[in-house]
Amino acid sequence: MRRAFLIEEDLGFKVKWGDVEGFAKLMKLIVKRKGLGNVLAEGTYRASIEISKIKEVNATKYAVVVKGVAVGAHGVRSGLDYTKPVSYVVSVQCGDHTSVAQPDYRSGDPTALFYDSAVICSFTAYKIPFRDYLKFLYLVTGWNIGEDEWFNIKAKRILYIQRILLLLGGPDTYWDPRIHDDLPLRFYEPLPEGPYKGRVINRDEVLKQRTEYYEKLGYDEYGVPKIEEVRKLGLNDLVEAIKVIEKRLKSNMPASPSMD
Questions:
Q1: What is the pTM of this model?
Q2: What phi, psi does 219 have (nearest 5°)?
Q3: E strand intervals along the chain
Q4: Does an H or E element contain 236, and which?
Q5: Domains recognised in the chain with CATH numbers
Q6: Bridge partners of 29?
Q7: Quick one: residue 142, left, alpha or beta (phi over 0 = left, psi -120 to 50 = alpha)?
């Protein structure tokens, strides 16, 4: 039976967990794009697709990514994690652990969007009330933005633009929210060891939270911002882009390779 694992035959040398010299060799292959390093240099997602072709087996299920973006140090299975199970699923920055969405909209995207837009390190932000950051913004820029305006208008404008651009995709890939608004498959497997061994995520509950998040944000059932909501925010230039996305979804055009 063919396996997705990379072995000595693939790399030209052995690499074991904790093998500093082996990993140093591997890094040099990646930097110089030699041999299989040329594939790995493309990043986890694209590498998993190419390895699937090479090994003639689905290697993408081992790629811990969300819409092509590798997940950071934070998982979701223990029940005590920094992120919630739905956070990576609906985040416009995908696997980025610093800008995750939250079931409670006000404590998630809008706050992270402000920190990113204002170039504020989130490590400095925990003990300062958000309203104080808006005061700082006024003192520095003269922009007198209240909390309601930020959460209900400014942040949503940024979020809608990012979401639409994400679904439009690029020249060689785009994402189907029915497939790719989901966790890495490994996150639905029980934790194999540690104090929370056996903990697992219920996919039906994740998909339920995904639907609830869509509704809160004014998205349709596929996670596409509704045209009427976009117009309310004055983003009329995005209407044609939404129509392209909707047409693609209705025609069931193939998206990027599925992680299933």
A1: 0.85
A2: -90, 160
A3: 65-66, 69-70
A4: none
A5: 8-63 (no CATH), 73-250 (1.10.599.10)
A6: none
A7: left
